[in-house]
Amino acid sequence: MMGRVRGIGTARKWFRKHRIGYLLILPSCLFVLGFIIIPLFEGISLSLTTEEFGGRGAVFAGAANYVSLFRSDAAFWQAMLRTLVWAIATVAIVYCTGLALSTLLNQDIRGRAIFRSLLLIPWVIPNIVVASIWRWMYHDQFGFINSALTGLGLISQPIQWLSDPTLAFISVIMVFVWKYTPFMTITLLAGMQSISHDYYEAAQIDGASSFQSFLYVTLPLLKPVSITSTLLLSIWAFNHFDILYVLTGGGPSKATTLLSIEIYNRAFFSLDIGYAAAMGCVMLLGLLGFAVLYLKSYAQTAA
Amino acid sequence: MGPAVMRKINITLLVLISCVLLAATTLSAAPSGKVNLRFWTTHIYGPELEQAMKELLDQWHRENPDIRVTYENIPGGDVQAKFMTAAKGDNLPDIVDGWSYQALQLAQMGKVLPLDDIYAEWSKSGVLADIVNESAYRKFYWKGHYWGIPWELDIRVIAYRKDLLEKKGLAVPTTWEDFEKAVLATHDPKNNIYGLTYAAGFFNFTGQIFVPFMVQAGGGILNKEGKLVFATDNFEANLKALKFMTSFATVHKVTPPGIGSYDWDDSCAIFLAGRAAFSIERGNVITRLLTERPDLAPKVGILPALKGPAARLAAGFCNPLFISADTKYPDEAKKFILWLTEKGRTMALFKARPGQMWPVRKSDYKDPFFKNNHLLNDVVKGVLPYIVDMAYPAPGVPEMGAIDGEKMFAAPVNDVITGSRTPEEALKAAHKNMQRVFDQSKATQAR
Hints:
The complex is a heterodimer of chains A (303) and B (447). Chain A has 303 residues and is mostly helical. Helices cover 76% and strands 0% of the residues of chain A. In chain A, helix 3 (74-105) runs antiparallel to helix 10 (210-238), helix 8 (165-193) crosses helix 10 and helix 9 (197-205) packs across helix 10 (210-238). Chain A is globular, with a radius of gyration of 25 Å. The A-B interface holds A 19-20, 50, 52-56, 59, 135, 138-142, 157-158, 160-165, 168, 246, 248-255, 264-265, 267-273 and B 1, 6, 77, 80-81, 84, 87-88, 105, 108-110, 201-203, 256-263, 266, 269-270, 273, 275, 398, 401-402, 405-407, 411, 414-415, 417-418, 420-421, 436-437, 440-441, 443-444, 447.
């Protein structure tokens, strides 16, 4: 009994000592709970119901939404495939472009600070504005791109950037690349600048060329930064919505309808919220699985 | 840090939190004895309309000092998500100026008050007979009740260049055949002028401009009973309409080649730049001509409703005012919407941006404002008498909200223009998607 009382007393003392710390993290905890944890569980529970905006209350449906999703929803799987292609293409292009630019900006060139600042412009422009700007840039009659290509004598007829299904998909990838390359460049540049010069000097003494130094010193030491930034970018690409929705509406002929747009339409226009939640959960599971495998493979390589 | 200091910090925090909570409560509470009504609008865009709405509300507050109305305009991109989540969270405003089928979609959720008493009153007082046509309010009738009242129209028109027609010695077309001839004749690639422009992108507008062609061909999405007949009973008629509408781009090639990605704004910009002889538009083209191209406006006219193989009809979508079922003040809310829809009351809105919003009352069109502008007058004489809703000939069908929202009847036009599907395949694919909405709705109602 005495021991228990002493234990409670110690706990009280400990709590009194750390009270301020707990008070300070309380708002963040409440935020995470209110805006992430509860909505997440709400989403999962909705996916197990027939909840519809048009209905008057949810009915438990078990795995019915998931069954029809996996068995008969061609539109969902088409959107899933499109989203995978989109995510792989955008992440690969953004990473390669970012790597090239960060390598350039890591050199001792004149006006480096100005270039670095200019590079950030696409990153700071809101997505809706980005979509509107590019919509006009791609316009077949008034767009800057077609005008420039015509002016240079490279084309005689305007290119249908957004009305040809295949070209539209490539065009929206390019907008995403334009928007997110600055993030990758700055992140990789920071990673490069944290690499000690001693490694490069040692490589130089061993007779390594610049390319070999890049291949055997820079790239391996950039790996932790690359893993984190590409993982983040993959998540953003997979969840992407606003630029595409404004730029193409998901068209032409659904060629740019990603999973996020399919889910949005299903939830807010078809009002089938339970089914849309199931789609969202499958998307979440896919992303989680990818992230776990990605980080695990990195951990294995690092070990 | 000693216990005394900690106690002081705790007391200070407690006092601060109490003050913030007290201030918040005081600010959100209505002044004693007053009713506070929240009013969400979805059509009051631009400073001119906002000013006109503000003046209307000022007048209301002078006449009704005890009923305060606070209005908020919801931007287009946010409307559906905001309304549906508000409804789900029991937080809809008292009064709503909603999209065409929102009243019925929300009524399905039990979130809207029936307004049959207003209709009964309007029927007695003759107001109902003053509404532009029956379909303008029949669309709000579902399951034995009226869920919204008509208060403004959103119309689809074809704008044309009078000077280019005159140059070719052509009369104003009134039939499909004449329209086709005129478009082909005025197409002038040497002078960089397209015969026709319209938005055929994967956007809602594309479907909405397909409506007049469908009904002119004797087709449509639904039959009189509200049953989906898009690619069944109406297949041949809708196919005729789809082929006619898309042939300008796919067969005759007299449209800008990029229309498969256009939203209405892209197409309108081409017409305003003087680069097209005909353009399928919303009424707002008049607003833009008058403000952005006053030099071009006298050379432009609005075509009368075209006569197709089956009928002379046009498209006009009536938007509703409705009252949330969650309101604590249904009587005050009804009082406000009756006041707002009184004869001539909203004329300030229609005048603020001519062509953007259109009255639903025939008597409002007697205002000289409509006669004095040749573009508005063209619409009043040649288009308004023929307008029908997208659900024509059916009355209220809540499923039309999802069908329009998911761009299901925009898809066939977009599919054909971009070469992704044949007209036959495009109609059948769209029908399949629409059927899903009806099946889902049926299952919901059964539960």
